[in-house]
Amino acid sequence: MEEPEPVFNYTLDNSKLSREQREFYEKNGFLVIKQLIDESFLDKCKQRFLDLCEKKVPWGSLTMMKDISLSKKGAVGEHLYYKVQDFVYDSVLFEYCRHPTILDYIECFTGPDIMAIHTMLINKPPDSGSLTSRHPLHQDLHYFPFRPANRIVCAWTAMEDITPENGCLVVLPGSHKGELLQHDYPEWENGVNKMYHGVRGFDDHPIMELSMTKGDTVFFHPILIHGSGPNRTQGFRKAISCHYSCAEMEFIDIQGTSQENIAKEIEEVTKRRGLELNFQDFWKFRSRLVRGQQAVKWFSSL
User: SUPFAM superfamilies in the record, alphabetically (predicted)?
Assistant: First the structure.
């Protein structure tokens, strides 16, 4: 008797992924591809980040984020900025989003029409002793007002060797099969960086640490519960990532849902920066087509 064909809910028919890789992602909600990105390309991205930290190039619409504990201690440059977001309009960093090797894999999750929706270069600094360099367990879908979740995926690439000592990603395998949970700021003694919301009640759950070498890339589902520990080394832990979605996403009304708190916070931040954007238009503003055809409705209200 022949074994029945597996049902794939989280990946699409595409020759890029083997059956074993698809089955792994279906079961666990993530997939690591070793040595996917060339080191010289990552070094170019690193230099761009350093130039931004030193203000050698204009920031434009980039968001440069400071670590709350380090800013109080007078840190500057690379030691102060733990993240740059919204680099879809940066000529150097945007090349990561458009990297053909990455996009070939992304098609397996989104289909051929692909939007880059959320971009980050994370610079986890040596922890100051306050543990603010850690990131609480969370689900990325908490931040996104569009669906379906199964057509969203993150590509996250190690820009150097990443270990438990310098704060590697930790994941709860299989948690992508659950639902979007309530997120709040964790009640940590020394505070938490801006918008680092997290889920509660999972501290005792078994987690998997994703040690990665430079160039390794992990693809993961937006409902997968994940986070990262503090950087207990004297060096930096850099990674670059982009969330992608299919171009035919449907925006949802988040009123009355668990996403209201992050929507309000984002709208307040954008207002302080001189932008009057609601939660949906905020995401339209920071998204950009990277392959295929753009859906007209995605930008219909801007």
Answer: Clavaminate synthase-like (SSF51197)
> How long, in residues, is the chain?
302
Enumerate residues 6+ apart whose C-beta is below 8 A from 145: 251, 252, 254, 259, 263, 279, 280, 283
- β-strand partners of 226: 138, 171
Task: Please write down the long-range contacts of 296-301, taking CB distance under 8 Å and 24 or more positions apart.
Answer: 298/115, 298/247, 298/249
Q: Residue with structure tokens 């008797």? A: 1
Strands (E), the chain: 30-33, 63-66, 81-85, 114-124, 135-138, 146-147, 152-158, 169-171, 208-210, 217-220, 226-228, 237-246, 250-251, 288-291
Cβ–Cβ under 8 Å, residues 145 and 283: yes
Cα–Cα distance measured from residue 134 to residue 232, given in angstroms and rounded to the nearest whole number: 10
User: Which is nearest to 152 in space by CA: 116, 197, 181?
Assistant: 116
In a structure prediction context, what are the per-residue pLDDT tens digits for the chain, which is 302 residues long? 556 667 899 999 999 999 999 999 999 999 999 999 999 999 999 999 999 999 999 998 898 988 766 555 567 788 889 899 999 999 999 999 999 999 999 999 999 999 999 999 999 988 877 676 778 899 999 999 999 999 999 999 999 999 999 999 999 999 999 999 999 887 765 556 667 788 988 877 889 999 999 999 999 999 999 999 899 999 999 999 999 999 999 999 999 999 999 999 989 888 887 878 889 999 988 899 999 998 756 554 44
The per-residue DSSP string of 34-56 comes to TT-S-HHHHHHHHHHHHHHHTTS
Q: pTM above the 0.85 mark?
A: yes
**What is the separation of C-alpha 36 from the centre of its chain, rounded to a whole number of angstroms?**
17
Please state, in angstroms and rounded to a whole number, the distance separating the CA atoms of residues 141 and 139.
6
Phi and psi at residue 269, in whole multiples of 5°? -65, -45
Q: Provide the β-strand partners of residue 270.
A: none
Return d(Cα 294, Cα 114) in angstroms, integer.
Answer: 8
